[in-house]
Design goal:
It is a single chain. The chain is mostly helical. The protein is 52% helix and 0% strand. It contains 3 helices and no strands.
Length: 84
């Protein structure tokens, strides 16, 4: 997952406004993110960066419970948090 997020973050282009372009692999081959506003694109990038930071933390955390709580904030309440 970290490699995928890093790949996405590396694909952002632009000088003043960063954009991510992902073309649909079949006809009509349109950009899947073309309707996102610049603000939405910025928010999406920030969320990807936050998720990457949480994944980095979870990878090295000694406290599995705390790592899972941080991951649950990113993935939602269905993400399991083990009992102590």
């Amino acid at each position: 997952m970290k490699a995928f997020i890093n790949t996405l973050l590396g694909q952002f282009e632009g000088e003043l406004t960063l954009r991510l372009r992902v073309d649909l692999p079949v006809a009509p081959h349109c950009d899947l993110f073309e309707k996102m506003t610049n603000r939405q694109m910025t928010n999406f990038k920030e969320k990807l960066e936050t998720l990457l930071n949480v994944l980095d933390y979870a990878e090295v955390a000694f406290d599995t419970d705390e790592a899972c709580k941080k991951l649950q904030k990113q993935f939602g309440d269905d993400f399991p948090v083990p009992e102590r």
